[in-house]
Amino acid sequence: QVQPVESGGGLVQPGGSLRLSCAASGSITSIYPMGWYRQAPGKQRELVASITTGGRTTYANSVKGRFGISRDNAKNMVYLQMNSLKPEDTAVYYCNKLPPPSDYNAWGQGTQVTVSS
């Protein structure tokens, strides 16, 4: 199966911004809601933002008002605009469908986001 490919992470100072991109299979993005997940060291993977095929968005309380998820169905792309970044946003960020696949091989490499001064 084709894994999503995430990009756009990096090192940013607190208060800064990053835009993450995800290229996913059209067989997934055309059917499923898509989400951005993150996993910090020593913690479980958590869903931070999701978007339906129709564009309805939801956010975890920890990122509400700071992050924005969007999708381009024609290009099979999903984006995450992250503003006002905090050190606690430091994690590896992944995109995938909802509900999340249980198969380890269905996940991409993720993209590292580090927020530090």
Architecture overview:
The structure is a single chain. With 117 residues, the chain is mainly beta. The protein is built from 1 helix and 10 strands; from the N terminus they run βββαβββββββ. The protein has a 6-stranded mixed sheet, with no helix packed on it. A 4-stranded antiparallel sheet has the order 1-3-8-7, with no helix packed on it. The model has no long low-confidence stretch (mean pLDDT 95).
What is the secondary structure topology, with strand pairs?
Layout: E1 5-7, E2 10-12, E3 18-23, H1 26-29, E4 34-39, E5 46-51, E6 57-59, E7 67-72, E8 77-82, E9 91-97, E10 111-115
Parallel strand pairs: 2-10
Antiparallel strand pairs: 1-3, 3-8, 4-5, 4-9, 5-6, 7-8, 9-10
Main sheet summary: 6 strands, mixed
Measured by DSSP, the beta-strand proportion falls in 35-45%
The coarse overall form would be globular
Mean pLDDT reading? 95
Alpha-beta classification: mainly beta
Helical fraction: under 10%
Number of strands: 10
Q: What is the string of SSEs from the N terminus onward?
A: EEEHEEEEEEE
Beginning-to-end CA distance, first to last residue: 39 Å
Unreliable stretches: none
Report Rg. 13 Å
Q: How are the strands of the largest sheet arranged?
A: 2-10-9-4-5-6
Count up the helices.
1
